[in-house]
Amino acid sequence: MADAESSLKEYTGIDPNKNFHLDVPPGKTNFHVKGMDNVDWGMKDRLSRIFNPKSGNTLMLAFDHGYIMGASTGLERLDVLIPELAEDIDVLMATRGALRSCVPPTFNKAVALRCTAGSTVLSEDVTKEIIGVDIEDAIRINASCMAVQTFLGTEDEKNSIENLVKTINAGNKYNIPTLGVVAVGKQMARNPQFFSLATRVIAELGAQIIKSYYCEDFEKVTAGCPVPIVIAGGKKLPENEALTMAYQAISEGAHGVDMGRNIFQAEDPKAMAKAVAKVVHEGYNDKAAYEFYLDMKKR
To answer: N or C: which end of the chain has fewer CB within 10 A?
Structure first.
């Protein structure tokens, strides 16, 4: 990992000498999803289910944790949780097993289908993954996009990239976008240099959407990525801190938030989902969103 970190500093370091033209607004486009002006109608249709045409942003609910963690805290009963939260989110990010067994097909929500599979929390190394869902099953489920975990800077980098590009190729054939997920293992860097590199590489390989973590200098990470970045909620934070992270990310160029634990482990999950939606779609700042959350809790 030391060599990888040296390479990051040498080739991708975010420093004052790199010009991200932060003072230049993005050019005008004919489509509301960043970088997707020239894709086909079917691809745009699916992207429009993911990203709200008015705000240009998305709120995803991640509950695919079970594929590596089993019945993690807050996800013991998906059949109870999802109906409570579905109204306030745009995209269900889930495994095919959870969708078919626990999620009614009547919500008419976009689906980000987890398509990679591999080691569980019982393993010392969670970077070894395979493609676990083929394109035909993604079509049967009517997936709006296919999510692929991508481990860069690890011994399994080549296999991980192979999983990604195979999924992108299959998705392009049927106009289904690919969501490239920037994965961070225990020994992997969690800094602007790494996220800048990872998001750009995944976009250059053809993924239409990137999921990554919020970090310092995030506005430079988003500026350097030609497709929309959706931030991962990550570990559970106090509700006000989670809303601040969401607000800062959107303010600095993210086009959405994919939250799991910070919604379903909140003291009031439904109120939290509504509060995050206010930030993502209605321009609320973090303080206004937290006041909204506290008010919703009282009802």
So the answer is: C
